[in-house]
Amino acid sequence: MGYFLEINSAGNLVRETWSGDVTLENYKSAMSELRQHPEYRQGMDGLADYRRARIMLSYNSMTMLASLCSSAEKWRHVAIVVSRVVDYGLARMYQALTESTGSHVKEFRIFMSIEEAERWLASVASHTAKQGESGKYANETSFSSTLISE
Length: 150
What we know:
The protein is an alpha/beta fold and about 150 residues long. It is about 40% helix and about 35% strand. It has one domain (about 1-150): Transcription Regulator spoIIAA (2-Layer Sandwich), CATH 3.30.750.
């Protein structure tokens, strides 16, 4: 499993890139890394790229992950990008499970194109900035990243 974390604090965006087989333990490690990152804060937008990954979660593991995330995290908009139909289905299952346990995401979408996901996040960020919601995107950029590989 490979995991790359990039945080654009000025842009209010967390970008995760996953590769290889992804398990519940991998998610737990990534969540810990994210929460400890000095530029991470609750209420950011997220882009999780699984195009080079295989999500290896059973229904029970997915339920545990949804419960853990719903109690520990709060996101504004999250885009999940997958390349395989089976991973699309697993992402939909995760979405349904988090909604049933008290969603930790204001808006959640699943894409099979990174470009579409980026366009959607840019459009909701622009709309949010016009409304004056806290944590809006800014023109300047500040990036920080971490690479975790096993």
